[in-house]
Amino acid sequence: MPLADDLALALELADAADRISVARFGALDLAVETKPDLTPVTDADRAVEQALRDALARARPDDAIVGEEFGATADQRGRRWIIDPIDATKNFVRGVPVWATLIALMDGDDVLVGVASAPAIAHRWWAARGLGSWTTRPGVALHRNAVSGIATVADASLSYSDLDDWGGATPQFQRLAESVWRTRAYGDFWSHVLVAEGAVDISTEPEISLWDVAALVVIVEEAGGRVTAIDGSASPAGSSIVCTNGALHDAVLAQLAAG
Q: Of 9, 11, 6, 245, nearest to 142 (Cα)?
């Protein structure tokens, strides 16, 4: 099947997700529960994921599915769709408009297609292997993403998520943060798509799940960036992520690995 067809399907799934999530954003009757890992989940998270699972069952019945809320179907060796129905649920619950549905298609360890749709801010990022990385946003119908040309860590902009997640590696992260030009905690998907756009040069999270980053890997890499785990191993297989413009990557990994 042509990859363009899978990308088209992923964009259709994102349209469906946007309709559900926007309708529930800011709803007075939004149901919020706490999961065993102490993170929130809403009725919108579950409704989005169920709708996408139903659509994939019709459109790609032979493909497996991995979702944050309802787990994985049996076969995880071949083609599988990775769904994060609402990334940045804490933002969603509090009325902060920076949240997104993340949809990816993987085959084995390779991410082939990725979509990050943030309807509350009218932004969407997507990519497919060999087809480039793209953004739509207000006032710009279609924009091809390209990472920055920043060549030294001292000139770089760094985005991160929660500082509490670094644990024993906190000193290494603090050293990196002190060595860059600018730091901001944009957090969640937002940190990484900004690397793809060239607005941020480095983004990192020490604790992630597959659905948090699968879509973002291809969006950043097709924009010319590089993505690994903090130890330099392949992402999204690892449990952490570092995205850079490529030129900075080895220097960033070295700082995060330093004792």
A: 11
Pairing of β 157-160 and β 32-34: unpaired
- Given a contact cutoff of 8 angstroms between Cβ atoms, the answer to whether 211 and 68 are in contact is yes
Confirm if 216 and 189 have CB atoms less than 8 A apart: yes
Q: How many CB atoms lie within 10 A of CB 176?
A: 24
CB 40 within 8 A of CB 32: yes
pTM summary value: 0.94
Contact 45, 21 (CB under 8 A): no
- Residue with the two structure tokens 């997700």: 17
State how far the Cα of 16 lies from the Cα of 35, in Å rounded to an integer.
Answer: 25
DSSP structure string for 169-192: GHHHHHHHHHHSSEEE---HHHHH
- For the chain, domains (ranges, CATH) are 3-140 (3.30.540.10), 153-257 (3.40.190.80)
pLDDT tens across 172-223, in order? 999 999 999 999 999 899 999 999 999 999 999 998 999 999 999 999 999 9
Closest CA to 204 of 227, 180, 234, 224: 227
Q: Is 79 exposed, middle or buried (0-12, 13-18, 19+ CB in 10 A)?
A: middle
